[in-house]
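Teaching assistant's notes for section 4

Start the section by putting this record on the projector. Ask students to predict, before seeing the second block, whether YggT family protein will look compact or extended. Collect guesses on the board.
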Amino acid sequence: MWMIRQSVDYFFRVLDFLIIARILLSWINPNPNATIPRLIYQLTEPILAPFRNLFFRFGFGGGMIDFSPILAVFFLDIVRKLVAGLL
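Reveal the predicted structure now:
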């Protein structure tokens, strides 16, 4: 049981790391065709898109700063705690 909980924790840590990496990549604006930035964008977009759409729906989207990664990290932390609690 301990290994499953540890694996779930690592999974969510990797997701957090990928979201932070995406934030940092948005600051330096790398070549979008490069392998690593493209992989990071492909892995994080399914997580960030619903939160970005939520901001647009309530009229907060489209600005210079994208707050969807912050909301996604908070949401993922809640989900991680719920899953860990169930295990």
